[in-house]
Amino acid sequence: AAAAGPLMRRYEGAAQGRGVAADGWRVCLAHSFEELRQPYGAGDVSLRDVLRHIGLGLRYFRWWFKKTRIEKKSAFIDLLCAVPLQQIYGCPLGGIGGGTITRGWRGEFCRWQLNPGLYQYETVIANQFTVCLRCKGQTIYQQVLSVERPSRLQGWNWGYCGHYAFYHALYPRAWLVYELPGQSVVLTCRQVSPVIPHDYKDSSLPVAVFIWEVENGRDEDVEVSIMFSLQNGTGAKEDRSGGHWNEPFAFQKDGERVAGVLLHHCPAVNPFTLAISAQEKAGTGVTHVTAFDPTGLGREVWQDLLQDGRLDSPAGKSRPTEKGEVTAAAVCASCRVPAHGHKTLELALAWDMPCVHFGSKEKLHLRRYTRFFGSEGNAAPSLSHYALTHYEEWERKIEAWQNPILENSQLPSWYKSALFNELYFMTDGGTVWMEVPPDCCAEDLQGPAGAGLSHLLPVLREYGRFAYLEGQEYRMYNTYDVHFYASFALIMLWPKLQISLQYDIAVTVVNEDVQPRQYLMCGQTAQVKMKNVVPHDIGDPGDEPWQRVNAYLMHNTADWKDLNLKFVLQVYRDYYLTHDSLYLRDMWPVCQAVMESELKFDTDNDGLIENGGFADQTYDAWVVHGASAYCGGLWLAAVCMMCKMAEVLGDTEIRQKYLDILNRGKEAFERMLWNGKYYNYDSSGSDTSSSIMSDQCAGQWFLGACGLDQGEFEV
Q1: DSSP, res 202
Q2: Among the listed ranges 160-169, 443-452, 546-555, 573-582, which one has the minimum average pLDDT value?
Q3: How confident is the model at residue 663 (pLDDT cuts 50, 70, 90)?
Q4: Largest Cα–Cα distance in the chain?
Q5: Mean pLDDT (whole number) for 684-709
Q6: Residue 367 burial (CB count, 10 A)
């Protein structure tokens, strides 16, 4: 630390001069020193180790500066400009792979993920629901349903008392309840997104529905209007770039009519249309304002609604915005609720960004939903209509999926909450679900060495390509060492997406990328991707995923011990749950290739692989020496599954080969790691060697999930 101090101060000054937070630079070096400190006692750290980690910090800063300041691109992991934590987020809107818009638990629209894999953390204050109550021809109450008191739109009535509101989420639905103070009226807004297991159409749609249940506790009828206002854009600076415009629309099909406003957002890359709408039905009126200024006082919209509980509904499209100008629109649904009665108003939000470029802008990709709604950029009206006429069916399917678990008294409530609410990442993990081009052939997908995956093209043609980020700030798609854990959500709920993802990984396994690059942790140069090795990830959304893999450049993951094993474990797990024998036959040669590649890590031929004395697995700041409980356990589980797959496929020679390895490896694992009470972290004999690693039995867990944790296959 003493040696590092002057350098840290020097580079903090340089970083601040370039607009970088000094504590971000501290985080960069702290991450490095944490790896240094972790496996050793503090007294064991040598000057060489300190200098090595200072070197890491300098390499990272040099790479970060080139990427963000010279190339003007985002860093896939930005340790210097981390997004500040805000505990405001609630249930995101939208299906899988079409982008998401997140509402906070106070009802605000506060996070936007429309451009694939990229997030904008902007709370757009104009995006609101407003209620108007009228009795006997007079407006008695009009309130924005927000606790905020913003500097904009001050002609509106803000500052709803949060004491009279309640939020609840059970993904993919959420509820906001408003007990309007002094009005004897209760509003419940139920938001629904089409996230439905085993559904590969509706689950792809970029839509959400807001069902407003109105309970009138008064002794007289009340006219209730819900106004939904929305800014054209995402709150980013491009909202002011000019050329954006709005227009009203009405869409009728099968006797059902939907009306609202389209907000066309026209940047140079990835243009899109937002749509706000409501369903017209007996007793429900729908009106609109095509355009208003969300940066002004907003009095014209407020007074329009206040006057009669309706909006003026002008005809025709708005003019395109000038540079520096922002525009917004509003739609209003109104009905009469009888005394002590109940009525429902339904509004929807849809967004249509059918064709997208990733950061490199090399290829144009079509989102999954374009298969059903077209790719011309004019689908927002039909998406809105479909959502408003199908949400009841979605809810029936969601309840049929969730109720058996919710009603199971043997499961604790925290588990039920986590099981469903953590699934939000399926849609809000920078998720993309793309169609493969209709003229695509197997050679285009397989690469020069990918022949033999006979069902690759049929699977990807039918179900598309799926990818999600490691994290919203760890911007790598399908990071495989952690997908290992999350993959249960896919294989149990959308198994065809897991199969598709596995085919994509298999293609990259058998191909290579010989381009050299420097790895930041060690400073050494090696090729980006070696043949017969599972990639760390399939790319950065800021580049060109699937085409250029392994965005992660902290470590050279060709030497990681867990990636190959996790591929084998998932292949058999997927087969066990789907009984897809065609998939198993396609993956079998790939499994053999990665296991052959892994065998080189068994340096003493005792049937058990050894770690290399650096952070060579998913816990990438934890150094491991020799045999280890985590990687050794994954290895034995993978060997066990090779035996089982060989048995299923009738490959007796391979089965015997891996059965011999398994018997030797099990004996070595017990001898080298069991201390009489538990398995040691590793066999190095260091101060941390006898630690208990909470994840050390992950291999056994995976075997249990596949019915292989007992009898002859027990590891």
Answers
A1: G
A2: 443-452
A3: very high
A4: 89
A5: 93
A6: 25
Residue type, 482: V
∠ CA 282-286-291, rounded to 5°: 170
- Quote the CA–CA distance of 385 and 379 in Å, as a whole number: 10
Query: pLDDT tens-digit profile of 264-294?
Result: 999 999 999 999 999 999 999 999 999 999 9
pLDDT of residue 327: 98
Contacts of 648 (CB under 8 A, 6+ apart): 575, 584
Neighbouring CB atoms inside 10 A of 460's CB total 22
Average of per-residue pLDDT across 46-73 = 84
- Inter-CA distances, 104 with 128, 174, 217, Å: 12, 11, 28
SS3 523: coil
Please say whether the dihedral angle defined by the alpha carbons of residues 293, 297, 298 and 303, taken in this order, is positive or negative. negative
The domain limits of the chain are 25-34+85-403, 560-714
Under 8 Å between Cβ of 629 and 679: yes
The beta-strand segments (E) located in 270-426 are 272-280, 284-292, 328-337, 342-352, 355-356, 365-367
Using alpha carbons, select from 300, 297, 248 the residue that is nearest to residue 275. 248
> Distance between CA 538 and CA 560 in Å, rounded?
16
Residue 439: C-alpha distances to residues 353, 443, 508, 573 (Å)? 22, 12, 21, 32
The structure tokens listed for 180 are 């309007």
Residue with tokens 């792809």: 204
Q: Which residues contact 597 (CB under 8 A, 6 or more apart)?
A: 532, 533, 564
As a whole number, mean pLDDT of residues 413-424 equals 96
The CATH number that domain 25-34+85-403 falls under is: 2.70.98
Q: Which of 196, 197, 193 shows the shortest CA–CA distance to 206? A: 193
Q: What is the pLDDT confidence band of residue 401, given thresholds at 50, 70 and 90? A: very high
Across the beta sheet with 89-93, the strand order is: 89-93, 100-104, 109-113
| Coil, helix or strand at residue 430 | coil
**How confident is the prediction for the chain on average, in pLDDT?**
92
Question: Distance between CA atoms of 328 and 244, rounded to whole angstroms?
Answer: 10
Cα 328 to Cα 307: distance, rounded to the nearest angstrom? 20
| CA nearest to 639, candidates 672, 583, 600, 596 | 596
Separation of CA 378 from chain center: 26
In 3D space, the residue among 189, 168, 191, 171 whose CA is nearest the CA of residue 180 turns out to be 189
Which DSSP string corresponds to 455-492?
THHHHHHHH-EEE-EEETTEEEET-HHHHHHHHHHHHH
> How far apart are alpha carbons 674 and 656 in whole angstroms?
27
- Domain 560-714 = CATH 1.50.10.10: yes
State the Cα–Cα distance between residues 235 and 125, nearest whole angstrom: 9
CA atoms of 336 and 712, how far apart (whole Å): 70
Q: Produce one character per residue of 566-579: b if its CB has 16 or more CB atoms within 10 Å, e if not.
A: bbbbbbbbbbbeee
Q: What pLDDT is stored for residue 451 in this prediction?
A: 65
The terminus-to-terminus CA distance of the chain in angstroms comes to 44
pLDDT the model gives residue 10:
40
| DSSP code for 211 | E
pLDDT: which is higher, 85 or 457 = 457
What's the pLDDT score for residue 331? 98
| Rounded CA separation 205/460 (Å) | 18
Residues 6+ apart with CB under 8 A from 552: 76, 476, 479, 536, 537
* Coil vs helix vs strand at 704: helix
C-alpha 165/C-alpha 170 separation (Å) is: 17
* Partner residues linked to 275 by β-bridges: 262, 350
- Tokens 């709150």 locate to 235
The first and second tokens of residue 550, run together, are 């392994």
Cβ atoms within 10 Å of 627's Cβ, excluding its own: 26
pLDDT tens readout for residues 44-58: 556 767 777 788 888
d(Cα 128, Cα 110) in Å, to the nearest integer? 11
pLDDT (average), residues 375-391:
98
pLDDT attached to residue 596: 97
Q: Tokens 């897809």 sit at which residue?
A: 580
